[in-house]
Amino acid sequence: MVKCKDLFGKMSEYLDGEMDLAMIEEAERHIGHCTECKETLDTFRKSVALIKRTKTKKLPHDDRKRLKELIQREMEKM
Amino acid sequence: MTDSDRIVVERFKNGDASAFDELLSRYEDRIYGFLYRMCRCPEGAADVTQETFLNAFRYLAEFRGDASFKNWLYKVAANSCYKYKRKGVNEPNFELSLEQFLPQEGGTALEIPDEALVPEGQALNAELAGQIEEAIGKLPKKYRLVIVLRDAEGLSGEETARVLDISTAAVKSRLHRARLFVRDELKDYFGSEKAKR
Question: Which candidate, B78, B100, B42, B39, places its Cα nearest to that of B160?
Fold first, then answer.
């Protein structure tokens, strides 16, 4: 039988689809009757989704130019 | 390795140095974005991006193709990143345990409103995005590398393990703790948002 602490330690595996089938069934049975775990999992799921939606930064124009020049110099040494 | 990367790498190995330009334009933004999250400052990210591509250029001839070029490049970037020290700023250095994140009886429960989650492809509220980046930046490097590679860069657990030379079990464990840390750090933000409503 899954306890709250067990599920807490495996929320990432659950969300990432890395939990084995038997454990998923047990976890879902537990979530079905434990309001606290249901809420914890809900906020955990949302926070992971937020992390995944942060936008990446692009290399600024001047740094891009400098990088290209550096590589060009390396090429000339070859 | 995607076929096109493989072909370009082969061109380079066969003496066509200009093939590197193509690899550079494919991956410069991606590697910079990764390093920006890791270094926590634009200048540092640009310096480490330079070092990464210079090393990649110098050692690409030795690349055997066991991993994809993309993941090999992440490995070069991660190694450069380990060496990077931001001037005047101490790197966070602590361990995270599951116990520290367990919900406490009578503690404040975190509430994340549904509207905070914009549809995929849309930009997050800038203030919230800044809070998330800041929270990730507070993590020690060994946790930050894992959460950034897995959740921001979209690498699988196995790919992340290979890039960082650690076990998949270590990736899972560090990722979970890092996510719990970020979730915890968002408590204040959503607490004050709730107060505003």
Answer: B78
